[in-house]
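Section 3.1: Structural characterization of target chains.
Under the original work plan, the team committed to producing a structural model for every single-chain target entering the pipeline before any wet-lab resources were allocated. The record below documents one such target. The sequence was received from the expression subgroup and is listed exactly as submitted; it comprises 107 residues.
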Amino acid sequence: VFNQTFETKQAIKTNLINFFLTSRGERYLNPTFGNLLQNLLFEQLTQDKVRQIDEQVRNDLGLFFPRVQPVEITTLGNPNNNTVSFKLSYKLRDTDIEDELLINFEQ
């Protein structure tokens, strides 16, 4: 699924995609790896829920990706298609590397 990469920017992005698509407890022998986003995303998307998602993402990044500094986190729900789009703009600490990640979750 993922191509091997030797560039820091692409390696971080690949690791973030892997992290956000893995639910906590899903990985054998590493049950703490992964996130709780999918549990939060498919509840009614209110302002309070968006704040909760933002806080969860920032906590997870601080724990698993300390070099990644979130710049902006955007969560958009589309109830007609039962999908949620999650966008993370970030930069790497102590570098000039900036990037963004867009993941669409479908239920």
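The two ends are 21 Å apart (CA to CA).
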